[in-house]
Amino acid sequence: MIDDALAGKGSIASENKAVEALEQETGNKSSFGRSIYKNFMNGVSHMLPFVVAGGVLIAISLLFRAFILLIQIMRNTTRRQQRC
């Protein structure tokens, strides 16, 4: 199977049956707008993991900041109690 793919004998299988059906209905004519739309959606789907990872990193940093602030507040409270 791998040898066939490397030799170029394999075929590309698409999992999206709705797109195939739409292309058959329109006669495989790709308009300029359709081409732009497909390229844009391809870019968005490739960018999405980076956006999600960035959001996760921001959430982790905010939790870390809240944890550090909580520790500082607890230290200040214990110092005030020791002075009294």
Structure description:
With 84 residues, the protein is mostly helical. Helix content is 80%, strand content 0%. The protein is built from three helices and no strands. The chain is elongated, with a radius of gyration of 27 Å. The mean pLDDT is 82.
How many domain units? Answer: 1
Order of helices and strands: HHH
Spans of 5+ residues with little confidence (pLDDT < 50)?
none
Mean pLDDT: 82
Which shape, going by the Cα principal axes? elongated
What value does the Rg take, in angstroms? 27 Å
Biggest sheet descriptor:
none
Strands, count: 0
The number of distinct helices, counting runs of at least 4 residues, comes to 3
How far is the N terminus from the C terminus?
79 Å
List keywords for this structure.
84 residues, mainly alpha, 3 helices, 80% helix
Brief rundown of the structure:
The protein is mostly helical and 84 residues long.
